[in-house]
UniProtKB/TrEMBL annotation:
Compositionally biased residues, Basic and acidic residues: 186-205
Keyword annotations from UniProtKB, A to Z: Coiled coil
Coiled coil: 3-30
Every PUB domain range: 235-293
Protein's name in the database: PUB domain-containing protein
One Pfam entry name: PUB
Region of interest: Disordered: 186-206
Amino acid sequence: MELKRLTVLVEEAEAVLARLRQSLDEEHDAGITSTEQDERHIQSMALLQQLTTSQPDLDEKIQKFVDKLAWRDPITNDPRYGPAMQEKILAVAGRISAVKEAAAAATDVIEPKASVALQNQQLRKQAQDDLDAECLKKEQERACIEAQQVIVAQEVLQKQLKEAEIAAQIEREALAKAAQAVRDERARAQAEKERQDAEAQRQQDELNQSIPVGLTGLEMALGLLGRHFQSDAATFRAAKRTLLVLLKNICAAPDNATFRHINAANEHFHRELGQFPGGLQCLLALGFRPLRQGSTSDDGAPAPVIYVLEVRTVQ
């Protein structure tokens, strides 16, 4: 049983030896690269190490069987093993010896090549590591440059945004200033208009107060109207006709409030009579009194002045 187990171990060693010989044959393939050749040298070295590692155990086990070949029975003086067993032991011993000799012969060939191959492999690994390190360094430098560019771009963008905000603020302030200037100008113009209107109203009031009701006042008003139309007799006659029509309407229908209420802003009245100096004074001389309906109209303009002639009842 022990010899069978030993035989199995020998067969395994012979199988390793066969792979070793095949590996050595493949090393001479002209179609492989130097890197592949180094890999095969290293592979052969690994197989050789596997073979030599198992050799002491094989030697020890076969030596036990060889030692027993000299044993004899103390009574019969017969050998410990019979001829067939002896033949098997010697055959296994021969196979072990052959494996050992082949391994020893291969060692002188394999070890120098494997040593060089390992050095080449280490050099290639070092070169690859150096290349990887250089690539990593360049990648880091590129990433650093890109990061710096991003930072610069962000700073430029922030600067542009800040400048844009400043420009927008300046523009807003300029617009606000311009708007305030417009409001101030409108307020000034409004104040000036109100002053002029107040002055005109004051002068108008003074003029109106200077016109008495009656014939004398009418003569004064017509005098103002006539002086205005010194060089335009036709328009003067048209103005007097308008005044005459008003008087005829009132005389014809004194109870009709429509004829006794004259809107100073009426387009026809204003065009024919009201716009001229003396026109409104004629109404005052006839007994009309100005009444303003409210302070302003719906559109914000001053309320129109209505000249009203009151009807006096005779007792």
